[in-house]
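From the shared-data thread, chain only:
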Amino acid sequence: MSGAGLPELACPPGFGEPAPDLAGKVVLLVGAGGGLGQVLARQLAAAGAEVVLLGRRVALLERLFDAIEADGGKAAIYPFNLAGAGPEDYAQLAETVREQCGGLDALVFASAHLRGLSPVEHTPPDDWLTALHVNLGAPFLLAQACLPLLRERADPAIVFCINGPQAVARAYWGGYGVAQAGLAQLAAVLADELGQGPVRVHAIDPGPMRTPLRQKVWFSEDPASVPGPQAAAGAIAGLLGPPGRPLAGRLLRLQAG
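Structure, as tokens:
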């Protein structure tokens, strides 16, 4: 690795179609209640994975769980508040996954926290620190806690969903923008450290997606002008199967812009 971050690669056309066979795999999905997370959870379950739905909104996770079960899939709910969790909470999470699911094959970060755009000068310190903790500190703590579990599997993977730093390294993106740049570097560091072992590290920049988080920021945008998260979810699922192996250690860009 050059030290400049993960090498970038345009997502191959149609990657993730058809969905890979993920039967028997256990996937911990962080941010399962988000716009991308909900679609991704259902795609992973449809591909045969057991999906551990991690998020803070219990009622939403319960509805998602019911939808997956109704479609014949398998899921589990783990209510978790990234903003208030400490190292001991992540250790307990990993142990619970081991006890209840028998192990872990993949860890996918599809969560994001952004309260809104604000100049640095006027950003409340608590908002800044929360953005750094949820978007960067939490992925570090959870990856650290889950690595021993992942190493026990035959083809384990970690996937980071990253809002491309070039899109948020500008005015008013504050702690969220700083955290996204840090998350890209965390992915690069982990890929370099784990490159000779069994755990492969992936990063994906989905580009603009029609989600509640985007609508909070681009509130004057016509939602119909932005693609939904289905293609991004399919690409992430594809990374977890055999077709994803050659793409390890890369930042996959799904869209331009």
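The helical segments are 35-46, 58-70, 87-101, 125-150, 165-168, 174-194, 212-217, 230-240.
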